[in-house]
Amino acid sequence: MDLAAKLHKANTLNPTVLDAKMVLKMATIDAAGVIGLDHMIGSLETGKQADLVIIEVRSPHMVPMYHPESHIVYAAKGSDVRDVMVAGNILVRNGKLLAMDMDEIIHNVNEIAADLVQGSEV
Length: 122
Fold this sequence. Notes:
By secondary structure, the chain is an alpha+beta fold. The chain has one domain (2-120): Roll (Urease, subunit C, domain 1), CATH 2.30.40. The protein has helices at 2-12, 20-34, 68-75, 102-120; strands at residues 52-55, 81-86, 89-93, 96-97. Strand 2 and strand 3 (89-93) form a beta hairpin. The model has no long low-confidence stretch (mean pLDDT 93).
């Protein structure tokens, strides 16, 4: 989101061309609409999947928070995500992955990477 906002500003030489609220909308409901799923995801509404993240806002780089949308777009990092819920299922709680085995994931990724490296040397 940060990069999208800044690229538009740099390209147009207009710092107001794309505000944080619009960028956040583009990353949520507009993104869902692009893939034809805005009736299921992209906003918190009755009848839609409960997909959400909770961001830790008590980190030094997140205070003081005058404009939440701006902080999400320009200041928040992936490591600030505390909890993740997808389709109502909690996948990450307090920064800990609950639904998957991280050691297994890392092992599988390393195997795939090794296969890719071997394939490129042929």
